[in-house]
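Subject line: Sequence and fold of a protein, written as structure tokens
Area: Proteins and the way their chains fold up in space.
Start of record: The labelled sequence and token lines come straight after this line.
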Amino acid sequence: MLRRIREWVMASHLLKFLIVGGLSFALDLGLLVVLHELFLVDLWIATPIAFLVSLAFNFLLQRSFTFQSDSKAHISLVKYGALVVFNLVATDVIVNFFDHVGAGYGIGKAVATISTTVWNFFLYKHWIFRQAEPTPEPLDVSSNGD
């Protein structure tokens, strides 16, 4: 039974994506708390440090564990960075829109999180960490029919 569960987890990109995302969130929040509460690092400094560490962790695990990508790391990293910037802008717009129409920023944050999670999965799989197309075997054009 445990073997079947392990095999299912290892075969599921979506489940691995969600696990890595959850671990990234936990790392982000945990490091923020440790830096701010334990080491008394100012929130303005602790927040981006924790966020950037979690982004690096997320990139590395999504690349190696979730999608087992063989694409060029530097190209994937540039794409990942572009998506992070897009997600920051989209989240800000969504949160502020929901707050502006009276639904509240909490609802906006939930909608933004769900939206970015959905499109991130597809963009990670089909754009950022897309597997290289296998190169076809060359055709044997030698003539043996003398």
In short: The radius of gyration is 21 Å.
